[in-house]
Amino acid sequence: MGLDIAQTLIDGLMVGGLYATVALGITLVFGLVGILNFAHGQSVMLGAYVTFFGVQAGLGFWLSAALAVLAMAAFGAILEQLVFRRTLGDHMAGLAVSLGLIMVIENLAAATFSPDPRFVDPPVSGSIMVGPLQLSSQRLLVLAISTALIGGFYLFLQRATLGKAIRAMAQNRQGAALVGVRVSLVSRTIFTIGSALAGAAGALYASLFAVTPYMGNTPLTKGFILAALGGLGSVPGAIAAGFLLGIAESFGSRYLSASFRDGYGFILLILALLFLPTGLFGAGKARV
Amino acid sequence: MLRLEGIGHRFGGLEVLRRIDTSVAAGELVGLIGPNGAGKTTLFNIISGFVRPATGRVFFEGRDVTGWKPNVLAALGLVRTFQGARVFPNLTVKESLAIARRPVKGRQGDAAARVIATAQQLFDLDAHAGEEAGSLPSGLMRVLGIAMALSTGAHVLLLDEPAAGLSGEEMEHLQEVIRQLHQAGTTIVVVDHNLHFLMGLVTRAIVLDSGMLIADGPPEAVTADPRVVEAYLGAADLADG
Amino acid sequence: MTDMPDLATASVPPAKAPTAWRGWLGSLAGRRTLLAVLGIAALAVLLAVPATASSRYIVYLGTLLALHGVLAVSLNIIMGFAGQFALAHAAFYGLGAYTSAILIRDFDLSFWASLPPTAAAAALLAAAIGYPSLRFTGGIHFALITFAFGELIRLVTANWHDLTGGPQGMQLGFSPEPLLGIDFGSTRGIYALAAGLLVISLAIAAAIRFSRFGRSLVAIREDEVLASSLGINVTANKMAAFVITSVLAALAGTIYGPFVGFISPEMMSASDSISVVGMLIVGGLGTLAGPIFGTLIFMGLPELLRVAKLYRLVILGLIIIAVVLFAPKGVAGVIDRLIRPKRGGAR
Question: Cα–Cα distance between A19 and A25 in angstroms, integer?
Fold first, then answer.
């Protein structure tokens, strides 16, 4: 029994890291630019396709994944320039535009890549035994990479000049502008980083699940649940919520019912909104 | 009518209100003054239910209403206005006033209706009835905000800087409307920076400074109080309004 | 981790109302008789052509248009009037279809008897997800939660094989029983049912629009804080609107079942919910005629263009983006601008 629980816990952590990587991009863009970007899931999907085609072209998983990150970073910057720049400061218009983007990107992908599922050979296979626990090597690798991404991002916010500018803008937009932070540059950077994180998540998704044009909605849904669960705009909240959701799903499907796997997070979110209306870390806002 | 007991509030580590105790009787016309950052608007937010105070209680008509929602208080007859020109931008003046108009609960329906009519006439709102609120000149927008609050038939009105941005003539009209409202029995608390505007109007002034209540009394006595003068950083500001 | 930025502070909406979105919602002044007439004309065409046409295809298309018209008209109540992005509309449509079909299959109910419990289930679910999310100002929580809920319902439907038949869907063998001497079982009968529901939905939307409830919703859309200061119970009004919106979508779903004879979790997909949002944005949010224009454009135009479905959706996505960026009041707004008297003219 104890062993079973430990196994379930570790499975949950592995998925949770992946979820957190997606949620980080969503909460970052929302917190700083005020746009709830529904097209974020499309960056995950496109990142997965870049990885798939890279591997097929013989680049190998790692190079392909790096390519996915770069391509999605560029994609984010382009979207910001073409579309989201025009809706800054009006979050409902930003949301509406991102809904239109989902339709455009998803269906173009389906028309171009065909709706057939594709599979990417994971870079590692088999499983390793840690004491009595059997761990899938690939899932362990996903956990390691997502933890590294989250940690690297944290260091960037804390140490890099641009990271500090972002934190300044998060605290006070006008104040940041006054001390010389270029708000438009930060806004583009945020979209670029958010989309790059989604590209990385896409590469990791591709190594675990089927790649299809419609795969973007599930990570997006999870990302939304996490962003709200963690308190919209809160980076630590989104990370903590990511691992919490992974664990909740893992235990729920192991001990309750696997059919409702995707429902546990939602129930968690509804309960959190009812009883912790400002999110796990007290961010966000409530009350009319 | 309105009583505050030990109201305190903080934003982050900053204490914006400290143990405010005061009350306003039915039918009073009170000015709430103080320098920027004194906590006037926070106090309004607390009384009107938009912010729950960290400490203390708010009583309205003898009931403890601390933490009650703004719409509930408004329905009971306690209505506030906002700083600046806060209106429904895409609704016409007529629609805006219709939305605000409630079936008046209890008393003074006729008197209130008369005052609203006067206000509409003085500010010529009728001539703009079909215009969208968002496209009105800013003075009229402010007036519309007040007219909407009046239309609810409130018997306690909290006006947050109603005269800011108004022309001299508009300001006189506003004073006239507030006076009539007062005569019709409405209890009114006005926050304003413009002491000239207030002093010719109110019968009592309450002064806040750095979150503390430092003076309370007839306007002439209060403005002569050295602590009030000091709070305003010298008499120049007072004269300047 | 404690040093990490709390990004939420930046997420507080700016005090000044964002202009594009506000403008886009459009004013609802009652003066636009001509716009209303055009809307009614569009509706008349939508209703009359299939009723008189002999072609089965026209009747089929008419039914489809009418059902999507119901979706657009009902979504307009929460989204156009109250300004809240509800992104689970297709999910409620599917929920209605499945609930009614399961009640008929497992409890031997008639089609008509399955309607009240289906409506009640939709109302209950709408209230359950509306209450936690609509307490927040600004609409972001609601958009996010309805989207997640829509996906959740689809996934649960696809995974709950015993009850729903899983991803392969359900074949339905029933059709609505005759009522008041009218045969609702035929293709034309189902069309009449769908058209009837569309007319009822429009009547409900119009009644709401010109009631105190509707005015409160519009006030909430314009400024929630100001509305609440004037005594409007913001959360309760938004919830009531969302419940009505969702019940109408579920009822449209109950008709879709016997109309097509087959239902699957596909009909609940997020992109279908987004399509309905697109219809409203393109047609003109918050107007009574907008949803009808939007339905005709969204459903009719691609049918005329006859391009592959995928490219149709791409084109519609591009139209949504273009309308939001360049014609924020939608088609109804454009028509209104063309017919509106010049400045200084009589109003």
Answer: 10
Of A225, A94, A231, the closest CA to residue C8 belongs to: A231
Per-residue pLDDT of chain A (288 residues; tens, 9 = 90+): 677 787 888 888 888 888 888 888 888 888 777 778 888 999 999 999 999 999 988 888 889 999 999 999 999 999 988 888 887 767 778 888 888 899 899 989 998 888 888 888 877 777 777 777 777 777 788 888 888 888 888 888 777 777 777 777 766 666 666 666 677 777 888 889 899 999 999 999 898 888 999 888 888 888 888 888 887 778 888 888 888 888 888 888 888 777 777 778 888 887 777 777 666 554 443 332
B91/chain C closest Cα distance in angstroms: 6
Q: Which of C273, C235, C227 is nearest to C95 (CA)?
A: C273
pTM, 2 dp: 0.83
**Topology (CATH level 3) of domain C37-339:** ABC transporter involved in vitamin B12 uptake, BtuC (1.10.3470)
Residue of C nearest to B45 (CA): C229
Helix H, strand E, coil C: the string for chain A is CHHHHHHHHHHHHHHHHHHHHHHHHHHHHHHHHCCCCCCHHHHHHHHHHHHHHHHHCCCCHHHHHHHHHHHHHHHHHHHHHHCHHHHCCCHHHHHHHHHHHHHHHHHHHHHHHCCCCECCCCCCCCEEEECCEEEEHHHHHHHHHHHHHHHHHHHHHHHCHHHHHHHHHHHCHHHHHHCCCCHHHHHHHHHHHHHHHHHHHHHHHHHHCCECCCCCHHHHHHHHHHHHHCCCCEHHHHHHHHHHHHHHHHHHHHHHCHHHCCHHHHHHHHHHHHHCCCCCCCCCCCCC
Overall domain count for chain B: 1
Is B70 within 8 Å of chain A by CB?
Answer: yes
Query: Which stretches of chain B are DSSP H helices?
Result: 40-47, 70-76, 93-100, 109-122, 138-151, 168-183, 195-199, 219-224, 226-231, 235-240
Q: How far is C236 from chain A (nearest CA, A)?
A: 12
Which residue type occupies C7?
L
CATH code, domain with B7: 3.40.50.300
Provide ipTM, 2 decimals.
Answer: 0.87
Among C12, C226, C287, the strongest candidate for a mutation testing the B interface, having the largest count of B CBs within 10 A, is C226
CA–CA distance, B32 with B83 (Å, rounded to integer): 14
Residue type, B221: A
Chains in contact with C, where contact requires at least 3 CB pairs less than 8 Å apart: A, B
User: Any residues with CB less than 8 A from the CB of B127 and at least 6 apart, and which?
Assistant: none
Q: Which of A144, A125, A184 is nearest to A18 (CA)?
A: A144
Domain limits of chain C? 37-339
Measured in angstroms, the CA of A105 and the nearest CA of chain C are apart by: 7
Domain that holds residue B185: 2-240
Domains of chain A: 2-275 (1.10.3470)
Number of CB atoms found within 10 A of residue A70's CB: 13
Q: Provide the 3-class DSSP secondary structure of residue B5.
A: strand
